[in-house]
């Protein structure tokens, strides 16, 4: 597997945990608008080396999640804004264009310094 994206969590909005029961996490680069930052996991790096595809792996602090579907604007939004939604529900069709869908598995809660990576097969 080759690493196509990695970043580190620099801040966690106070409302992030409220999305865990919904199997959801919102990522945004550190420059998130104030009205969104409370809901987001903020990170510092925005270097996507190639397009994300279903079948690739997202990794949070060593816990692997298979990518099951990729919304139409995920690659553009991650590259340009560092902003995507992660949905841990196993969907194989992307209902929302800014959402990256992952296998239905318990979310690994992030903390400051958590590593988020995407690996190509």
TrEMBL record:
Q: A GO CC term?
A: cytoplasm
Q: Which domain of life is it from?
A: Bacteria
> Which GO BP terms, alphabetically?
phosphoenolpyruvate-dependent sugar phosphotransferase system
Spell out where the chain crosses the membrane. Answer: none
Which Pfam families does the record match to this protein? PTSIIA_gutA
Q: Which UniProt keywords are given for this protein, alphabetically ordered?
A: Transferase
Its name, as the record gives it, is Phosphotransferase system sorbitol-specific component IIA
What organism is recorded for this protein? Answer: Clostridium pasteurianum BC1
């Amino acid at each position: 597997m080759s690493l196509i994206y990695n970043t580190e969590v620099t801040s966690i909005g106070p409302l992030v945990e409220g999305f865990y029961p919904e199997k959801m996490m919102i990522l945004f680069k550190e420059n998130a608008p104030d009205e969104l930052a409370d809901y987001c996991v903020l990170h510092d790096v925005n270097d996507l080396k190639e397009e994300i595809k279903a079948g690739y792996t997202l990794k949070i602090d060593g816990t692997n999640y298979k990518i099951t579907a990729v919304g139409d604007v995920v690659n553009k939004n991650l590259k340009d804004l560092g902003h995507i939604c992660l949905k841990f529900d196993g969907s194989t069709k992307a209902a929302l264009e800014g959402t990256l869908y992952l296998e239905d598995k318990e979310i690994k809660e992030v903390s400051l310094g958590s590593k988020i990576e995407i690996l190509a097969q």
